[in-house]
Model the fold of this input.
Amino acid sequence: MTIGRIGRPTLAVQRPLVSQSNPMTTSRWNILAATVCLTISFGAYLWATAMMDSIYAFRSPLSANPPRPGKPLSQVTGFPMTLRVVFVLIDGLRYDQSMDPQVMPFLNELRQQAAWTIMHSRPPSYSAPGYTVLFTGSWPELSDGPALNLEYDDLPIWTQDNLFSAARRTGLETAVSGFYWFEKLIPQGDVARAYYTPGEDQQADRAVVDAALPWLRGNKYQFILIHLDQVDYAGHHEGGPLSPAGKAAAALADNLVREIAENLDLTRETLFVGSDHGHILSGGHGGNEQAVLREPFILAGAGVVPGKYADANMVDVAPTLAALLGANIPASTQGRVLNELLDISSSQAAAIREATRLQQAQLLNYYKKAIEADGSSPVLSEEVVSTYQAALTAARQSRLNLERLPRGLAAMVVAVSPLVVLIRRRSHATGIYLLGGLIYLALFNLRYAILDQHSYSLSWVASSDALVLYCLTTTAISLVTSWFITSFFLGSFIKSPGASINAALSLSLIVIYLLALPVGLSYTLNGPLATWYLPDFPTMYLAFISILQIMVVALVGILLGGLAALIAHVRRWVWAHRARIPTE
Done:
């Protein structure tokens, strides 16, 4: 490389200057930054894997010591209110689907003689936790059902008291016809007759109803579950709930409900129609969108006062049906008997209220013991369940606060420390790196939320592999684009190889810092893993996809550093080659 005389340089050196920083210092920093990135990437992989594994493996605090069942309500109310309850569970049916008279005319006819309302559930809005909530009356954190859908062989048996166990304990015969997951979930000693199928389409639903019709025509079974799955199948695999296939599936399910009702005497028997979750428009569930957390509640027949009622919760189904059957309120129930829907006397309502008080008091004591929480007994009011559930929530929150305080302080230190360093060493380059980080976030979320219209929840995720692949590709594209933009403003391509590596790694670390902010929030609220409580799923999801991005950014950042160094070497070679060419 020829410099020429002191003064105006020759044409051979009319190029931008390389970094004036100490090459040894830059080299050491690059090695350190690359090592940090590798460590972060590996740690992110381990954390993301452990986080999901902990949710799959989650068990209720009540799992090892469930509350004990109380007396059958028939002993306190005098008699069961119906000869039989038939529970038709239309898997995946949205509330608005059920309200469309063009799609489901029979359900809308049935509402005219039924007690009906909107039913609300809570995330995670998957089938396995939804089934468990419907039949135990407790939310996913306490019900001890799977928090996420599992493979058939991995499904655990219900440990908490449930409608099947309560009915059997009262001397009633139960029967189930539906998806084969129920074979693993329901204690089979509490089921007298069953038909299970791995099928999910309309042919499977036809077989399910055909198996149940003889039970309806006889009087041997007093509690019957009929599970229809084709609506959920269409939501997942045939274009979503409101697609032509989705509407056709709902119409076929409506016809099957009509057929079931025609085999019942609703002056002596009771029919309940509900769902475990809804679907987002593209098909899918599991998250916290309103569409997946609103389901139909239709109760018709003996013991029921028809009418449109105030909204109900999914946990209210089990205690209400238990009251109709004269069985005990399932011992872990967090809901209430919907007395206003039932044709009962004031003395029967008072007896149910007292049974509810005993059940709720025991549940609160068992829960506080399980989580080792203190707290005084609640002051009773007319709203027994809400009073006790507020006390349960307070006990939970008290322990959570003790755990969140040190986590929050640690997260704050981790968040503030890099910020202090950036402020103290602020420069033109620092501002460009921050701009590059914001560009990365904008690009990732532009594709995620605007172009692909994904929700920030588990509802759109078909599988863990699909989510990982999506985050990998979107992260790589967004980071490479951001790197090109920042490199242009910094002139990284015309600097020394070491300085070019420095720029790529600096950008990656800034992006990692920004992505770590929602991770820190989730860490504070939820802890690193699911332990004795389920996480807040919206913040957990944001943290999870951020961890996936961090894993990719850390690796791609190293690759970009190598690419930047290669580009710088090539440019230096070109400059040197040009310097040797004599000018005319």
User: Anything to note?
Assistant: Residues 537-579 form the longest helix (43 residues). The chain is about 55% helix and 10% strand.
